[in-house]
Amino acid sequence: RRQKLLHPGKSLYQAFLDSVTLSDENVKFQIIHADNKVLLQVEICEIEGNIFRLKIDEAACLKARYKVPDVLVQEPTTQRLSISQKDAGILVLSSVNEDYKLQVTANPFQVELQSQGEAVLSMNSTGLLYFEHLQPPPSDRKPAAEKEEAASDSSKEKQEDLGLWQEKFGRFLDVKAHGPSSVGMDFSLHGFDHVYGIPQHTETLLLKNTSDGDAYRLYNLDIFGHKIHDKIGIYGSVPLLLAHKPNRTSGIFWLNSSETLVDISTKAVAEHVASGSAAETAKQRAVPLTDVRWMSESGIIDVFLLMGPTAFDVFKQFAQLTGTQAMPPLFSLGYHQCRWNYEDEQDVKAVDAGFDEHDIPYDVIWLDIEHTDDKRYFTWDKKKFQNPRKMQEHLRKKKRKLVVIVDPHIKADPTYTLYSQAKDKGYFVKDRNGQDYEGICWPGSSCYLDFTNPEVRKWYADQFAFKTYKGSTNILFVWNDMNEPSVFKGAELTMQKDAVHYNNWEHREVHNLYGFYQQMATAEGLIRRSLGKERPFVLTRSFFAGSQRYGAVWTGDNMAEWDYLKISIPMLLTISMAGISFCGADVGGFIGDPEPELLVRWYQAGAYQPFFRGHSNMESKRREPWLFGEKNTQIIREAIRERYVLLPYLYTLFYRAHTAAEPVMR
Q1: 134, 182 contact by CB (below 8 A)
Q2: Where would I find the Glycoside hydrolase family 31 N-terminal domain in this sequence (predicted)?
Q3: pLDDT tens for each residue of 188-209
Q4: What is d(CA 380, CA 158) in angstroms, rounded to the nearest whole number?
Q5: DSSP letters of 258-288?
Q6: On the chain, which terminus has fewer CB atoms closer than 10 Å, C or N?
Q7: Which candidate in 370, 381, 557, 586 is catalytic?
Q8: 481 given a catalytic annotation
Q9: Which of 481, 498, 509, 624 is catalytic?
């Protein structure tokens, strides 16, 4: 609401072009807001491979603002920009090979990126650059400053209504210890009317124009049975938008892990066409223009402009920044059989035997939360799984694997070693009063490990050691679920934004990174237990840019309906374009009971998707592939076998994804 009070128009920011400094790394200058007189530092650099980076931060902050760590694989190698023109009110920067020029206008401040004289993309051209500088809390201010503020606060909106220092959400109170800190910026894409990306939404491939109050949202949430064509964010977020036109594909990577909204508006604008002779009147033609507005709750503006020019160039550029898809172990490209839940060791044996009996190949059987001792992860239910090692040996003889679920919430139980250790070491996320944050999840009252802390990640990785994780063997792999994080009875079923993480950062700053960090720690644990010899397999529900380096993702709690089968294809293509090749959707639909025809069709579609797993909910009827009559068993068998025939090809595609950032699904 605060950012929406700023309407498109002339920006109140202007640049001080006499403050420009040029180094090998970057070009820096300052901009100022005409009303609040706060100085911001702008930094522009060129990164080798046709990438430009623009950063905007406060020139002098009360305290450091959050800058996303660990997502970029390294600090990118920069190339020296040169100043090719500098006069009153205009600064032109040229790229090394002079193909690209950045034209900075001083008043109002805007930046236009041109390729061979043609505008490709401009920033702040609709004047929506927005930056809330950090301020002392109202109680710390000097009385004089208060009066001044009261006088300048002519807008009818009362401060509290805009949620500056606190905000009510249903029965929740979000206390903003550092006050308002949101940032935003507009980008105009010249000649583009097709934009894609910004997963994860239950949405078509081509992104739609957003109307007021209905922006695409990037905020990882546990949404059971997500509605189709909804712009609400679901389990994962990759703030990468791709724009495509016949002669160019470009990308905008907005590196920010706080709640983010993206508004899209495409229109036709008139462009003058130069006439052949002076006698002819100049013609006009309509060309498309897409405006994209990014709004984030906190952090700084740190944006990468990926200039392509081809789609595959953009995929490579994004991978150069955030890494390529981890090379999966071959078994993980086979078929996976899952359910909430396979009841006990006998059940696992029977399902395993069923595949042999019906001559259907499969590689992995999965255990959901019921396999644990009362939802204590890294343990086994003593009655149902009395001898997990023996069960794994049975699977190993047939060259099969086991995947178990390991969620980030830890049952608050002093007799549970994992909980008591983490509590003693101070490894849980805290609430705003400095106590361990407690929320309800599958085990009941739970605390949440602070995976943003490298020490916690290291300790967590150690929990996967064979001697520590009793009953685990080297054919056991891992599924990280509920890691948005999901908090039952929490605001929007997630953690409060004012919870406190490592280095005193609030949850609002790091929310979209929580699942990314859990998967990172889990993958590291699996690598370490094999002394660095074996590739890990970790499936995560929540993800961010860079999650491709740690394993696979899936689209979460879909429904056993035809529309969900249909939407799974564009959803997976969108995730693939955002760098995460190893992705899939629950075959058959997680919620409900598919009619046999739907199940059969879903197997046929899933056989051609990168991650291939049948999964169903506790309430669903059993649906192992042979339970729908001989004719359907035969069709499903053929689909799964087709997958296995194609494995060498698929493995090669994954090698291309790993080495050259080419999406597997295309």
Answers
A1: no
A2: 42-263
A3: 999 999 999 999 999 999 999 9
A4: 55
A5: S-EEEEEEEEEEEEEE--SSTTSPPEEEEEE
A6: N
A7: 557
A8: yes
A9: 481
